[in-house]
Specification:
22% strand; 3 strands; alpha+beta; extended; single chain; 2 helices; three-stranded antiparallel beta sheet; 77 residues
Length: 77
């Protein structure tokens, strides 16, 4: 059970990470510049007939800040 729930998901995570284009933007001075962009598979693995990624994920720190502020306002009131 340990392999099924710990080892295999970890190995899958590493394989997906290595076969994806990952961009991390971090800034200490501006929260809105913090972002993570992930495209699977890497551009070098895509064919010429279908150059679009199968999966795209983008997260921006500013959106997380707004959502946390809404949760904080709901809890405080």
């Amino acid at each position: 059970m340990f392999k099924l729930f710990i080892i295999y998901p970890f190995v899958l995570f590493i394989v997906v990470w290595l076969t994806s284009d990952v961009e991390v933007g971090a800034s200490l001075y501006s929260f809105s510049e913090n972002h993570i962009a992930l495209e699977f598979p890497k551009a070098s693995f895509r064919s010429d007939e279908n150059p679009e990624p199968w999966f795209t994920f983008y997260w921006n720190g500013e959106s997380a800040r707004d959502e946390l502020q809404q949760i904080n306002d709901a809890v405080v009131k």
